[in-house]
Amino acid sequence: MSQPIVRRDFVPGSDYSPEFHRLVMERVWPKVWQVACRVEEIAEVGDYVNYEIGRESILVVRSAQDKIRAFYNVCPHRGRRLRDDERGNLSSIFCGYHAGTFDLNGKPVTIPEREDWHGCPRGNREARGIMAR
Length: 133
What we know:
The protein is mostly beta strands. Helix content is 8%, strand content 26%. The protein has one helix and seven strands, in the order H-E-E-E-E-E-E-E.
């Protein structure tokens, strides 16, 4: 059986430039479906995968047995990254900046320094919490 032929002109080497990368990140990835993980990777409530694409980091979390949520992996208060690890299991989402916590649906649970959230549109319990994708 012969090896498949790999064409050198199929994706020109010149396309792997910083400008081409910037254009792909700007015009392609935000407009197409992303495969962040397989459902069996987040089989139990609290399981999560930290999916990264370009500069974006998205937490994909099983928030209930029949529900999967995806959030920007940043606190809406100061933009601090919430999780650095690739995957795991958690009972709530914790921000190390002010020790705030969010439930698995992204709603604020504790906001210890509430006065520091003044002016932040997501700084109260009634707010939507972490920005859902």
